[in-house]
């Protein structure tokens, strides 16, 4: 028997745990691209909260923040609520990461909505910069720090924050199914805005928050193609 077609065990690549996120995910939407779709597309939206919300600190470049800050021990074991902290200050910025999760929803609308009573501290107005990052794979929050954070690709927007004034901002991006999109929110260094007054924080809870009703939140709306 000719066994030359068999793969030698030594030739099988070893995938380590830290490399799982680099593997391509199989599509669960096999054959849907062959179906006739309405033209023009029907208006639909799908709300998607970030899979990752994590802080980095320029003042402490090696610091790794806790990625499960509200976990607690119950009588059945550890419970990890999905609440995640969004915070910015002159040295701290927040990285958020989304994944496009549905077929045929190729327009991603990034939204930032903050009600008037939580827009800022007692200081004056400041700018928040939102950057697109060079990161198309899931971030390892167990090792994320300022030193290891992805590089900035582009500045998406500078959003003005004024005490007592609600914020409703959005930007639309093209996205294909399973795309990973990563952004960083930080205090802007634009001339004319004092960074010392830049301070903002909230806890994002996707079960309670609803961006359509002015809750403090960042989310993606997935829309049909235009």
TrEMBL record:
Residues 49-204 form the Ubiquitin 3 binding protein But2 C-terminal domain. It holds the Pfam family But2. This is Ubiquitin 3 binding protein But2 C-terminal domain-containing protein. It comes from Psilocybe cubensis (Psychedelic mushroom).
